[in-house]
UniProtKB/TrEMBL annotation:
One example GO MF annotation: sigma factor activity
Record-linked InterPro entries: RNA_pol_sigma-70_dom, RNA_pol_sigma70_r1_2, RNA_pol_sigma70_r2, RNA_pol_sigma_r2, RNA_pol_sigma_r3/r4-like, Sigma-70_RNA_pol_init_factors, WH-like_DNA-bd_sf
PANTHER family noted in UniProt: RNA POLYMERASE SIGMA FACTOR RPO (PTHR30603), RNA POLYMERASE SIGMA FACTOR SIGD, CHLOROPLASTIC (PTHR30603:SF47)
Protein name: Sigma-70 family RNA polymerase sigma factor
The RNA polymerase sigma-70 region domain, residue ranges: 59-120
GO biological-process terms attached to the record: DNA-templated transcription initiation
Amino acid sequence: MAFLDNHLNAPLLTADEEVRLARRIEAGVYAEHLLATERAGDVALVAVRDDGRDAWQELWTANLRLVRRHAMDFAKRQSLPVDDLFQDGCIGLADAMQRFDHGRGLRFTTLAHDYVRHAVAASAARRGGMLEGPLHRQRIRQRIRRAEADGGRVGRRELADLVGASPLAVEIARGHTASIDEVPSAQVVFVDDFDRVERVGTDFLNLLSTEAAEFLRLRFGIGRPTHSLRQLAARLSISESTARRLEAVALELARRVLAGDDERCVLPSETELDPTMQALGPRLLALAAA
């Protein structure tokens, strides 16, 4: 990260400076909208747009040291490459910048701390071999290790009480999870897992949202003609990358229903409705009925 040293030493911002930068960014975004829709070539708006971009860069640069601190902390604790964690932390910083509302009186650094730390923690979990395990399962594993370090191995129910999770969640967390080196790609894991459960029945699809269930039926030919991702994208009028993302979302929900390892024991269909998947509901139903 040597090339970032100059930026990482940028001065910290005060609360008033954060608000002023946020206002400049807002003005720049609005000016860019006007230039694109109504007043193309307006010199004054171009100046406001450019000033907003400069403000964005200044707010970004001033908070890179926060990203570095979290990245180095997780890299040291888990022996992971700091540069990779830093990059993912920067994504969290950008997300915080997009969501910052200076009118609510909250310091930007407070908001950024939460978003950056979550992004780095999720990245560390993935890079630590948690290819198909969600972040809550990683946390259960950490609690199990601490509990067993303190009192040795105990029974499943006693251990579940100690770590605050269901016995089933503990059993799954203690099982083997494939590392990223053990499979050629995440896509292979998704398809192989789904092919396996298809042989033992597909009633679990009724526990998913209607949209996710129909997407999987169409994708894998369950009571419907099989569709490739390219075919689904064309029939639904979406990009192939969007179809691939929706497949991953639907498969993750299916996997969680099958595993039954959600700490909170809440069905994914009740808590995680992808907006894009929801919007495609009528098209999916029409395609299934065709």
